[in-house]
Write a structure and sequence with these properties.
Elements (H helix, E strand, L loop, with lengths): L1 H9 L7 H53 L8 H12 L2 E6 L14 H11 L5 E6 L2 E9 L5 E8 L1 H51 L14 H53 L3 H33 L6 E5 H11 L9 E6 L4 E5 H18 L5 E9 L2 E8 L33 H12 L2 E7 L3 E9 L7
Parallel strand pairs: 6-8
Antiparallel strand pairs: 1-4, 2-3, 3-4, 5-7, 8-9, 9-11, 10-11
Helix pairs in contact: 2-5, 5-6, 6-7, 7-10, 8-9, 9-10
The chain binds adenosine-5'-diphosphate.
Length: 474
């Protein structure tokens, strides 16, 4: 027990509160989602914009190509002027190059096309037109005519605006992300507070409960089903603790009363022997017998308490053996035959030769407690029935009485430690309120089914069932 306790207290516990965990996790998820969103948006936008720009340039390039191929309209002085016009109309730079890369139209520039022409020729080796990126510009190029080493159209559009636009978009996205992040930070704080608030409340109440305050009430319904269930479980634990606490107090009252009565008797009769009956052998023996009987009562009370605490703490292990329960049950009834003098009659309905594999001493306690209870609680006719028979592949032992029975509401409680019916009862067989809890514990340790059937006003049947063992006593 000590070891268990120390294990419990030394178990490692994280010092971070659940609030921080939930908050952190939530914020991290938000952050990652935003990051994913921003990155994907950037990539997607860049792609779409580039694609659109390329398409746009292709359309403009093709139109310019067609118009140049159709020839220069008469209102223009020459191809150069026409190219200039087209350049202004379509918002692009238009160059007509020869096979060497020399600019043919007037809008000559400082750009060295002699290097660019090689790439254009390369690109056009297997297609009619080409679109590619060249630094800040996107270029549409094609061959206009094949004569004299070829004439080439070079249409360029400056795409620097695209980068600027993307940058501006990025800035805006970043701002939005920052805003969402701050918002999620606040929302996650509120959400994690919502999670941890009921837990904090329940922890406080559980501490109160641990200190013995059974008036605490756990609430969790407002915080979702799981919290509601947790609150219900804690309320159930509280009720059970309160019940045990009450029973324990009652036990102390009962036990001290039960201890006090024989002790008073022992003291009184011992004084009587000293003062009155010392010389009178007959009286002395009578008084001494009372002392012995009362001492026996005390001993059985202490024995019961010890047995139960040993069973419950798990100290006692079962010492199983195979034995003839029929003979053993008969023997137990015979031990109580002295009660016949008080008008009790036992009807024994025991089938012969039923073997059981169990701890003989403990099963003896079970039989004794069940039969003892039947004697204590049977009706005016003072009849007690003890039976043992085979039922399929199990053996069934039962004890029946003709007493008042047990109210249905109490049936569950009678197996509890310390439970004792409230009605004062004359008990020919000593009882401590622990008898049935010993019975329950022993039968549970063996894995035997047990129970009680009771009808108010008619009596009760207590029974247990066990696997049959067809063998000889070992
Ligand atoms: P005790 O008999 O010493 O009070 P037990 O643990 O043996 O303690 O029984 C617990 C309670 O169960 C009893 O106080 C009584 O109320 C009820 N009980 C047990 N056996 C019977 C029975 N045969 N008939 C009616 N009530 C019973």
């Amino acid at each position: 027990m000590k070891e268990k306790l120390s294990q419990r207290t030394t178990r490692k516990r994280t010092s971070t509160s659940l609030f921080v965990w939930v908050w952190g996790a939530f914020t991290l998820v938000c952050f990652l989602l935003l990051l994913l969103f921003s990155v994907s948006q950037r990539v997607l936008m860049q792609r779409t914009m580039t694609h659109q720009a390329v398409q746009d340039l292709t359309v403009r390039g093709q139109t310019i190509q067609e118009r140049l191929t159709e020839g220069t309209p008469s209102e223009f002085e020459g191809e150069s002027e026409y190219a200039q016009h087209l350049s202004a109309t379509y918002g692009v730079s238009v160059y007509i190059l020869d096979g060497e890369g020399t600019v043919q139209n007037e809008s000559a520039t400082s750009v060295d096309f002699s290097k660019k022409i090689a790439q254009i020729k390369r690109n056009l080796s297997d297609r009619e037109s080409t679109v590619y990126q060249d630094g800040r510009e996107y270029v549409y190029a094609c061959e206009l005519t094949e004569d004299d080493g070829g004439r080439y159209l070079y249409v360029a559009k400056d795409m620097a605006f695209l980068g600027e636009w993307l940058k501006a978009m990025e800035g805006r996205t970043l701002l939005t992300a920052l805003f969402i992040f701050v918002l999620s930070f606040a929302v996650s704080a509120a959400v994690s507070g919502l999670f941890t608030k009921p837990i904090g409340e329940m922890t406080g109440k559980a501490k109160q409960l641990a200190k013995g305050d059974f008036s605490v009430d756990f609430h969790g319904d407002d915080y979702g089903r799981e919290m509601g269930e947790l609150a219900d479980s804690l309320n159930f634990a509280r009720d059970e603790l309160a019940k045990t606490d009450l029973m324990q107090k009652e036990l102390i009252a009962n036990v001290s009363h039960d201890f006090k009565t024989p002790l008073t008797m022992i003291k009184a009769y011992a004084s009587m022997i000293i003062e009155i009956s010392g010389e009178d052998k007959q009286k002395r023996e009578k008084h001494a017998k009372v002392i012995v009987d009362e001492a026996d009562r005390l001993a059985s009370l202490v024995g019961d308490l010890l047995d139960l605490s040993k069973l419950q703490s798990g100290i006692t292990a079962l010492q199983k053996e195979q034995f003839d329960l029929s003979a053993y049950a008969r023997q137990t009834v015979e031990q109580l035959e002295y009660l016949q003098a008080k008008g009790y009659a036992f009807t024994v309905e025991i089938e012969e030769g039923i073997f059981i594999e169990a701890d003989k001493g403990k099963i003896g306690q079970v039989l004794h407690n069940l039969i003892g209870n039947a004697v204590n609680y049977t009706g005016e006719d003072r009849l007690v029935y003890v039976g043992l028979h085979r039922q399929g592949d199990v053996g069934r032992f039962y004890v029946r009485d003709t007493g008042e029975g047990i109210p249905a509401a109490e049936l569950k409680d009678i197996w509890d430690r310390y439970y004792r019916s409230s009605s004062a009862h004359k008990r020919p067989v000593q009882g401590t309120g622990l008898g049935l809890s010993i019975v329950r514990k022993v039968l549970e340790m063996h894995g035997f089914a047990y129970g009680v059937e009771s009808e108010e006003g008619k009596g009760s049947v207590f029974y247990f069932e066990f696997p049959l063992r067809g063998g000889e006593e070992l």
